[in-house]
Amino acid sequence: MPVPVAKVDAILDAKDASIASQIGERLASSKILEGESVDLHVTAGEVGLAGVVATSAARLEAEHVASSVRGVVKVENRIRVEPRSR
Fold first, then answer.
1. Contact 25/40 with Cβ under 8 angstroms?
2. CB atoms within 10 A of CB 18
């Protein structure tokens, strides 16, 4: 018996919400990303990252954090690096 599309969407949405929550918690606790703002969205296990950070290390850290979460199948990192002036 096939699963109704609405039920599949709800299952995917719940998984995506869990993935997004885990990534968000890990991004918030990363010392490298302290003071940075990273936006994320998750669709069917594919993570999109966006925003602006001050260093390449912060950009790579966000991608590493996202890719380390179970259930992530792909990470698209559109974070821009714009060094802050002192």
1. no
2. 14
- Is residue 39 within 8 Å of 66, Cβ to Cβ? no
> What domains does the chain contain, in order, with CATH numbers?
5-81 (3.30.1340.30)
Structural tokens at position 52: 């602006």
Mind listing the pLDDT tens digit for each residue in 6-64?
A: 444 455 688 999 999 999 999 999 999 998 989 999 999 999 999 999 999 999 999 99
Residue with tokens 């606790």: 29
Q: Which is it for strands 74-81 and 37-43: parallel, antiparallel or unpaired? A: unpaired
The vertex-26 CA angle with 20 and 22, nearest 5°, equals: 30
For the chain, strand residue ranges (E) read 37-43, 46-53, 74-81
